[in-house]
Amino acid sequence: MSVFVDYGERMRNRPRASLGRILQDLGTTVLDVAASPGDLDAEVTGVHVFDPLDELIVPPGGIVLAVGVRGAAEICSLIRRAPQAAGVVVKLPVDVEEEVRATVLETGVAVLALTRAASWAQVAALLRSLLAEGDLAEPGQGPQGDLFSLANAVCALLDAPVTIEDRSSRVLAFSGRQDEADQGRVETVLGRQVPERYLRMLDERGFFKQLYQSREPVYMELGEEGVINRTAVAVRSGDEILGSIWVAVREPLSEQRRRALADAAKIVALQLLRERAGADTQRRLRADLLSTVLAGGADAPEAAGRLGIATTRLCVLAAQLTDDAAADPARGESDRQRFCDALALHVAAIHPKAAAASVGSIAYAVLPLHSVGDEEARAVRVAESFLARVGPRHAANIGVGRLAANLSQVARSRADADRALRVLRARGTTGQAAGYTDVHFESLLLQVADVAAAEEQAPTGPYQRLLEHDAEHGTELAATLRAYLDAFGDVNVASARVHVHANTFRYRLKRLVEISGLDLSDPDARLTVMLQMRIFGR
């Protein structure tokens, strides 16, 4: 353990989040300097996504993700709009002309080049993980833990790039020098998850079983072209597997370095336990604060202030897994937490003050939006983008409420989102997002159905007589009527839908009119029976 004393001290005294430190942590795998004002000692305070439709407000030290910015003129224009920023990130290829260099020197804002392989959501997540901002910490309280410093310490000890992963092979932290590893490691760092094909290969060769059964580092000869071998060690707390440390190496570690890696696993275990406790506390705090904001009332302004959304216009998103009825309650709760965490990360990449938390089985997010028109549609697009990203792992629906111009309207936006989500559940769909205004009438019908059920009301008039006749004689006259109305009276279309001949359908239609007394030529009578079908759902 003595070999880790200096690195433990270094972890406790980690330097502030300077631009140079971030570039050192990420390495040229993700970001590189395209134009520098000189030293890169500027302190980084946050990550901000550039949207040409929104007002650009970047505090001192912010990093601006220049989504869609191309060419020297656009780069210079963005820098002048954010002269207090620490840097702007532009996707390769970056057009660095003399005008760009002059603007960088004039403002002190660095231009960073982002690899084409990375998405904006990925780089936003990576930067925020490195910053570990701890927005909800009390004054004077530092952020919880520093796995990135620990990963760099292990990298220095073993002279090889390192990742720290959880039990599901998601990347919790990584060291510098990742560009020295292989393409699989690059994909892992960018996606914050080991790609499925590598997981399958490791599992089929029994490496995971060997790793989790051993308390010592395990050397894995992968034997794949262009793939560097790995040495890994499980991170444990007693008999519980918390995760693992992976080192990209070309040959087995020396005995001294094997011992250093085993010792590192113990320190990482302590750090993960601290972070898990802190994350649980923070998750509960955010959930309580967000619940208070969503409920409205006297305490909402203070809660909104702590979340940093007190003065913004908001849309509420209500997201729920559609396969939530897991056989294992613990697994279900874990899935819901991961889903909520993914939603929080997604909306934070859209706006730095967005907040998300689980309330019961639903993950709510409040998304600040500038007033540029059609805010609800923009929020729906955000929701659709999120569902597209998590679709392979989480089947879910999202309801979007109307824009809340102030805090007093947030509770209404939450109710809107809940109702839109309920409409999607009633449709039996999955992977869908809907704004409340788009499903307003369906929502009203569901509310009327609730009232009818609460008051134990039942169908009446012609529709009641049809249902009673079907129940007594085993006929399908109600289904015939539904098909006829759904087809706007087109007998050929309606008969095809219920799979009978058109003449048979006409006979059934004549019989249902005789039995029910329904006048199909009366638009009010048609509307009445259609509403009863929707409300009573038979």
TrEMBL record:
InterPro entries, A to Z: CdaR-like_regulators, CdaR_GGDEF, PucR_C-HTH_dom, PucR_C-HTH_sf
Tree of life domain: Bacteria
Gene3D superfamilies in alphabetical order: PucR C-terminal helix-turn-helix domain
Domain PucR C-terminal helix-turn-helix: 477-535
Domain CdaR GGDEF-like: 299-423
Entry similarity comment: Belongs to the CdaR family.
Record-given protein name: PucR family transcriptional regulator
Taxonomic lineage of the native organism: Bacteria, Bacillati, Actinomycetota, Actinomycetes, Streptosporangiales
